[in-house]
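Colleagues,

Please find the record for the two-part complex below.
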Amino acid sequence: MENFVFYSPTYFLFGKNEEEKAGKYVRRFGGSKVMVHFGGGSVKRSGLLDRVEASLAAEGIAYVELGGVRPNPRSGLVYEGIELCRREGVDFILAVGGGSTIDSAKAIAAGVVYEGDFWDYYQDKPVEKALPVGTVLTIAAAGSEGSPDSVITKEDGMFKRGASGEALRPVFSILNPALTQTLPPYQTACGITDIMAHLLERYFTNTKDVEVTDRLLEGLLLTMVHEAPRVIADPDNYEARANIMWAGMMAHNNSCGVGREQDWASHAIEHELSAVYDCAHGAGLAVVFPAWMTYNMKHDINRFAQLAVRVWGCQMDFAHPEVTAKAGIDSFQRFLKSIGMPVDFAELGAKEDDIPAMAHNACYGDGGCGEIGGFVKLKEQDVVNIYKLMI
Amino acid sequence: MENFVFYSPTYFLFGKNEEEKAGKYVRRFGGSKVMVHFGGGSVKRSGLLDRVEASLAAEGIAYVELGGVRPNPRSGLVYEGIELCRREGVDFILAVGGGSTIDSAKAIAAGVVYEGDFWDYYQDKPVEKALPVGTVLTIAAAGSEGSPDSVITKEDGMFKRGASGEALRPVFSILNPALTQTLPPYQTACGITDIMAHLLERYFTNTKDVEVTDRLLEGLLLTMVHEAPRVIADPDNYEARANIMWAGMMAHNNSCGVGREQDWASHAIEHELSAVYDCAHGAGLAVVFPAWMTYNMKHDINRFAQLAVRVWGCQMDFAHPEVTAKAGIDSFQRFLKSIGMPVDFAELGAKEDDIPAMAHNACYGDGGCGEIGGFVKLKEQDVVNIYKLMI
C-alpha cells in the first residue's frame, strides 16, 4: 500500500426530511449570506427549493438565487456566479441538486476568493481556498457531495476538465433518498453507472496487496448489482434508493480508494463524448467502460478474473482465467443494458468520424501530456482503438 | 435504513515514517503545549517516543509526558492526567500507543475542560467539549484513532464503561503500519479479533434492507480472514499490517455501520471478563463472540447464514439454513483458534463461580437498566447462559 492522506470532514445528514435542517447547518458552518445554486425547474416544481429557502429564512439568513446549471456544467455560469457572489457579499454557497450543480457551486466557491481566472484550477492548480459549500443532494451519482473534486466544461473549446483540493469538500451534505424517488429510470441508471465507474476507476490498479480497498470496492459494486434492478423496477423503493445513495458517497470520498494507484482513463475518454454530444456522463461511461476493459484485459488477467468472480459471481476457469475475465466484462455489459443504458456509439448518437479528434483531445486537449490512465498508460492510438470498440 | 448523522473529521496520515510529521500536525491543529501520553516502556525502547518528541521540538512546541497507561486503562491515571494538564496549561494531548492510550487521552481531554467528575461522561453524559487529541497509533485494534468513543475502567468497583461524543474524535491520527511490526503474535491476534468484533457488533441488526453496510462490513471481515494468517505467519509483513490497520479504522469510524441498529452486547459481556481477570479485550471477545452467536442464532437464522456464506465461504444449505449458520460460527471459532486466541473460560483463566456476579454487573452495573444488546435484548439469565457456553 502506498502512503496516503485521508481527510473527509464533511458533515453528513442522511435520511427523510433532513433538508429541513439546511438553514441550521448553514448557520453552524458560518454562513450569513447565501447563494442558493440549482439547475432547472425540477427543484422548484417539487417544492424542494421552497423548503430549503424556508429553512434559511427561519434562521434569519439572507440569500440570493442562481439557477440554470445544466448537466455537464459550463464555465459561463461559473463566471456569472462569481460576479453575483462578489456583488452580493455572499459568504456561503448552498447547492441544491446533483453533481453538476455541486460541481458548479464548488467552481464558484473557489473563484470568488481567487484573484485570477477560476479556470486555472481546472488546469492542475490545487484549490487551497474557497467559500464554504453545503449541498442538498437530489441524485445519487457523482459523489461530489463528499469529494474534493469538481468537473466543469469550458465553453471556449468545449474542454471538460477537473479541479481538486481539500477546500472543495462540502462542509455539510444533506442526503435524503426520498428526494431521488422522482428521478426517471434513465437518469437513475446513469447515476448507478457513474457510481460503478468511480469504483472501477479505483479498482484497476497496479498497486499490489490492497485487499482492504479491493474488498470495500467490491462490496460497493455488489451493492449496486443488488439495488439497481430493485430501483429500476420500482422507482419509489426508498430502501434501494438509500443504499445506492450512501454507496455513491462512499464510492467517491476515497475512503475505499486510498493507498492505491487509480486509473481514470475511462473518465477522460468519456468526457470527450459528453463534451461533444452533451450526453449524460453515466450513459457515456456505460459505453466507454466495457470497451476500455476489453482493450486492457490482457494487462492483468487475474485482476479482471477476480472482479468477475467476486462481483459478477462467475466461476473461475483456472485453466483459462481469460475466459473468466471476459465473462465478467460480458456480465457487466448485460447488467448495464438491463438497466437501460446504451451499449454503443449509435445509441449515444456518437459518430465514428469524430474519433480522431476526440482521441487527440482526450490525450492532449487543454494541457494534456499525451498519455492518460494509471493502470494502463494509453496513448492517442490506444484511445482511438478503444473508441472503435464502441461502434 | 434509519436516518443518521455521519461526521468523521479526523485527518489521517497513513504509511511509513509519517510519525515524523506529528509536530507539524500538532501545530496545524492549534497545539502549543502538549501532554504526550503513552503506556509502558515499549515506545521508549523502540525510539518512537524520541522521534515523536523530536518532531514537537522541531516545531518549537513545549511538552510534558505522562506514561503508565495499562491495557484496560484506569480512572486513576485519568485523574492524574487532568491534574497535570491543568497545572501545566496543556492545550493539546498527543497519544502515542494503542487503543488504551488513546482512550485514556480522550478521557483526560474531556476531563480537563469539565468542572465536574470526568466519570459523568462514562455514565451516559455526551461529551460536547474536550481538548484536541492527536494520535500516533501502535496497534491496529480498537479503532479509537478514528472513533468518537473511549472506554475506561473505574478502579472503585472495577466498572468498565464507555463515553462518546463528537468532541472525542481525534483531530489527526498517524497510522504507520511499520510501528505494529514489533507486536508479538498474541497481541496482534487480539487486535484482529477486536476489529472483527467491531464489525460483527454492527453486522447483527434488525434493521432491514441494509445491503450497502452489510457488504462493506463483509468486505472488511473478508480482509481480516485474508490478512490475519499472513501476519501471524510473518509479523514483518508490512502489506498485511497495512491492510489490517486501515480495516481497523474503517471498522470503527462507523462509515460502514450507519443507518442500522447495532448490537454491542458481546462487548458488555466481555468488559466484565477483562475488568475482573484483566485479560486482553480481544482475547475476551474471542471467547465471548462465538458463544453469543450460538445462543442468539435462532433470532435470525438467515442473517447468520448470510455471514457464513459471504464471509466464511460456506455452502448454503437451502433446506436447512441453520446448518449453514452453525457452520459459519464453527468456521469463525476455528479461525480464532488458528491465530492463537483462547476459546473458553479455562484458557482465559476465568471461573464459573464468578458468572452470576459478572452477568449481574453486565446488565445492572453502574447504572445499567437490566437489559443489553440491540439485536437481541438479553436479560441477566441470558447472560448467565451465554457465559456458561464458554466453559
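The first strand of chain B starts at residue 4 and ends at 14.

Comments are welcome before we finalize the supplementary table.
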